[in-house]
Specification:
With 214 residues, the protein is mostly helical. It has nine helices and no strands. The protein has one domain: Heme oxygenase-like (Heme Oxygenase, Chain A). The structure holds protoporphyrin IX containing FE. The site of protoporphyrin IX containing FE (HEM) has 17 residues, from helix 1, helix 6 and helix 7.
Length: 214
């Protein structure tokens, strides 16, 4: 039987997922080895990234292919702003500059997400399915080790059960009318999305890492 597209994406990118999951910055974060400013720095980078991703989602919500993936319960920007107010205070915008890697990421989002539905879905999948998976574990660790509740970014009450949502999302990937060639381009864009995310984590590591993680 032919492999489902959702399974092919996961299989083709699992090596890069492993690299992302093992980023030193994330290891140190879940062990509570970073200053709280390190967590705030990550939330700030997410704000820059989701501002563009969610601008694209708004632009594509009526697109016959990409619009299927847009869901109001996924919208993260208001939660990110609330978390940044809690972490950095009302003047957070001046204390949350984008890193060089984040600027490369947002440049790529602007280049592909607005006029290539498959490119938008590649980036949308990489972030939101990650937030609904490992993100849930990260949030629990952050609440525990830093004693902060500024983790509303990871609260996806608006989509219902994360497991069921992910199943429906994979079904939508499998049902989308993409040719084999287009599917290949989308997998390549997911790989690039992982690279861009890893670079953001490396920038954060350079800024905040204490070097204690193995
Ligand atoms: C501490 C770090 C991380 C952990 C522990 C983790 C863990 C996991 C786990 C257990 C799953 C499988 C969930 C399921 O099948 O329902 C998953 C899926 C996923 N993660 Fe991560 N993850 C981490 C970091 C990341 C990062 C940094 C990204 C990208 C920005 C990411 C993107 C994804 C994606 C796109 C999926 C969906 C894969 C698929 O089923 O197609 N993850 N993660």
């Amino acid at each position: 039987m032919d492999e489902l597209f959702s399974a092919a994406v996961r299989r083709s990118t699992e090596g890069r997922h492993r690299d992302a999951e093992r980023a030193t910055f994330l290891s140190e974060l879940v062990r509570g080895e970073l200053p709280l400013a390190g967590y705030a720095g990550m939330v700030a980078q997410h704000h820059h990234i989701y501002a563009v991703l969610e601008e694209a989602a708004a632009a594509l919500r009526t697109d016959p292919v990409a619009g299927v993936f847009v869901h109001d319960g996924l919208t993260r920007l208001p939660a990110l702003e609330a978390d940044l107010v809690a972490l950095l205070g009302p003047g957070w915008r001046d204390r949350a500059p984008a890193s060089a890697a984040t600027l490369r990421y947002t440049d790529r989002l602007r280049a592909v997400c607005f006029d290539w539905p498959g490119g938008f879905v590649a980036h949308h999948y990489t972030r939101y399915l990650g937030d609904l998976s490992g993100g849930q574990y990260l949030a629990a660790a952050v609440r525990k080790v830093y004693g902060t509740t500024a983790t509303s970014f990871y609260d996806f009450a608006g989509v219902g059960s994360p497991a069921r949502f992910k199943t429906r999302y994979r079904e939508a990937l499998d049902a989308a009318p993409w040719s084999a060639e287009e599917r290949g381009r989308i997998v390549d864009e997911v790989l690039l999305a992982y690279d861009l995310n890893i670079a953001v984590l490396e920038d954060l590591g350079r800024e905040y890492s204490t070097g204690k993680a193995a």
